[in-house]
Amino acid sequence: MNTPPRISVVLPARNAARSLPAALDSLFRQTLRDIEIIVLDDGSDDDGATRRVIETYAACDRRLRPVFLPRRGIAATLNSGLALARADIVARMDADDVSLPARLELQADLLDAHPEVAVAGCLVAHGGDRVRNAGYARHVSWANSLTRHEEIALGLFRDSPLPHPSVAFRKNAVLEHGGYRLGDFPEDYELWLRLATGGARFAKVPETLLVWNDPRGRLSRTDARYAPEKFAAVKAPHLARWLSRHNPHHPEIIVAGAGRITRKRAEFLTACGVCIKAYLDVDPDKIGRIVHGRPVLHRDEVPGPEKCFVASYLSGVGAAADVSAFLESRGFKRAASYLLAG
User: Fold this and answer.
1) Cα 168–169–175 angle (5° rounding)?
2) Whether 46 and 77 share a structural domain
3) pLDDT in tens, 301-332
4) What is the DSSP code (8-state) at residue 323?
5) How far is the CA of 224 from the CAs of 43, 77, 221, 239, in angstroms?
6) How do residues 67-97 score in pLDDT, each as one tens digit?
7) What region, left, alpha or beta, does residue 24 occupy, with left being phi > 0 and alpha being psi -120 to 50 degrees?
């Protein structure tokens, strides 16, 4: 068999005839030529349109390996791609995104230079309407602000700081941690949490190397597995394990945020052995109430960091910065006596 390529790109596609050409063109324009592109058609039912695009591009460049599968879903399709990948490094790509020319070369260089890193991301450009899709644009800005391992690992307890189509990873590291899992959760976020809990290290090339488009039909908008409650549920056991190692008051915490949605998301921790002692809030209608046997305190009443650990589940615009500034003004230190978890 020929020498394996430097990178295998795993690109699942379903009913993607309109966007796939731009994605493939961007891969064919990569400065790193020593690649293979595994395009997996996950049971498209668009009268053969996606298949024709794949076959047309495969006929033009032998680096493209077409794979046609029955409909099985994203996790199973990605695992098929991993099994077929010949390179030690696998790069992810989606059929509706665009990689900038130097992306694969720079990510391969980062992984080669840092053998301790398992997953290499990059900065991404928001490919959508930043006004109409303001929430998604804020997520992109937040994800781009986290580039070092420590920032990424802690950021995982809020959301996913690693846009899935922007990463390149060591295939063996992912396989050793069980590959992608099928379940009632976002498959990429669950994988990053599992890798982080297992001690894997993350990094990012601090350059914009992918246009992360935001079409209406993307899974994160249409699939119930990507709802905020699913993120809260799947991260709970990983966060509980982190707290057991880093919270000096474990298993007790105080939760910042006493609203119904906030309480519901934090409650997943109790099934993992964490004890919520109280809630903090600033809403006068909530302060003084007892909810599930726990008092709601005004945040000015928070005990000092020598007496408690605070997990903030507040997720509104500006909430993270506000609660961080408040807690640090009271002597709390992130990851030592408080954590942003929402």
Assistant:
1) 140
2) yes
3) 999 999 999 999 998 889 999 999 999 999 99
4) H
5) 20, 19, 8, 22
6) 999 999 999 999 999 999 999 999 999 999 9
7) alpha
Does residue 2 belong to any structural domain of this protein? no
**Spacing of C-alpha 154 from chain mean position:** 12
Task: Give the residue from 194, 223, 252 where a domain finishes.
Answer: 223
Q: Which H or E run contains 291?
A: strand 290-291
**Residue 143's closest CA among 97, 206, 100?**
206
Q: What distances in angstroms separate CA 24 from CA 19, 65, 253, 320, one per listed residue? A: 9, 12, 48, 38
Domain presence at residue 99: yes
Q: 194: domain range?
A: 7-223
Token pair recorded at residue 294: 């726990």
pTM exceeds 0.85 for this model? yes
Residue whose entry in the numeric block shows the structure tokens 């890193």: 117
Q: Are residues 168 and 291 in the same domain?
A: no
Together in a domain, 298 and 173:
no
Residues 62, 198 within the same domain:
yes
Count of the separate structural domains present in the chain: 2
Cis peptide before 251 (omega within 30 of 0): yes
Assigned domain for 1 exists: no
- DSSP characters for 112-174? HH-TTEEEEEEEEEEES-TTTTHHHHHHHHHHHT--SHHHHHHHTTTS-SS-GGG-EEEHHHH
What's the pLDDT at 98? 98
Residue 98's nearest CA partner among 215, 213, 219, 17 is 213
State whether 54 and 160 are in the same domain: yes
